[in-house]
Amino acid sequence: MDTRFLESFIAIVERGSIADAARQLGLTPTAVAQRVKALEEQIRQPLLVRAGRTVTPTTAGLAIIEKSRVLIKGIEEIKAIASRNEFAGELRIGAISTVLTGILPFVLRKFFQDYPQIDLHVTPGQSIKLYHSVMEGQLDGALIVEPPFSIPKTCEWKRLLSEPLILLVPESCLETDPLKILKENIFLRYDRKQWGGRIADAFLKENRIFPREQLELDSLEAIALMVSQEIGVSLLPDWQPPWPEGLKIRKIPASPIPPKRHIGFLCLRASPHFRLLRNMQNTLGNRNQ
């Protein structure tokens, strides 16, 4: 089976039309249609249903689409392994929200210049889910909060930056003692189910503080906006800018030597893209030195 037939089939399903798929592949619509026809003849099943300019997969088409994507990705990875001096193919990276805005935009331009043959897909998410996606092979790597346990030896981990824990208060708050503020104000809690939120929770327990809490969520930007609106105070990592604009807040160190949330890059050593992922680690590390 010619893998180009599968590539054309995938492109049509993703684009929803033969004309759009042809433009993506740099072919004529006739050539793309002929490829799919040849694929249908080999499989002996109709794979697409045409209704005017719109094309949708049949039941048989839906049944093979994911396997087709995996097959094409595998072939691209084989090509990348065989070519030691050139990286090519698809690279899937996960990233937490503050990394998406505070780190990635400042390194991607150079990355694309250095690796023009790489098709990069970035998946946003929470550290816990992204960690498991890397371990299960669904992602090649991820920029996440450092796990609160030992990272397996099958993985490569590089710490990129550390963010100290701060007390976020409204601009109108004149008190400077963080422990007193936490005891006397409504507390907006950074989600304890997340690794970053556990750092704040541990700080509260160590200082025997049981604040009046009315809200718990996993969105640092949303919490900062709520503090600005004088809804309450919060313990958060002092994440990389940008922060939401127009905030009326003050940042107070949680303690003289505050605990920190560590951000790093995780990938599997057995990944076919391991050398490329290591290069990406170094690029990210240089950005934060």
Automatic annotation (TrEMBL):
Q: Name one Pfam family in it.
A: LysR_substrate
Instruction: Check the record and name the InterPro entries matching this protein.
Output: LysR_HTH_N (IPR000847), LysR_subst-bd (IPR005119), WH-like_DNA-bd_sf (IPR036388), WH_DNA-bd_sf (IPR036390)
Stored PROSITE patterns: HTH_LYSR
UniProt GO molecular function: DNA-binding transcription factor activity; transcription cis-regulatory region binding
Q: Which residues form the HTH lysR-type domain?
A: 1-58
Q: Which UniProt keywords apply?
A: DNA-binding, Transcription, Transcription regulation
Homology family:
Belongs to the LysR transcriptional regulatory family.
**Which protein are we looking at?**
Transcriptional regulator
Instruction: Record the organism.
Output: Gluconobacter morbifer G707
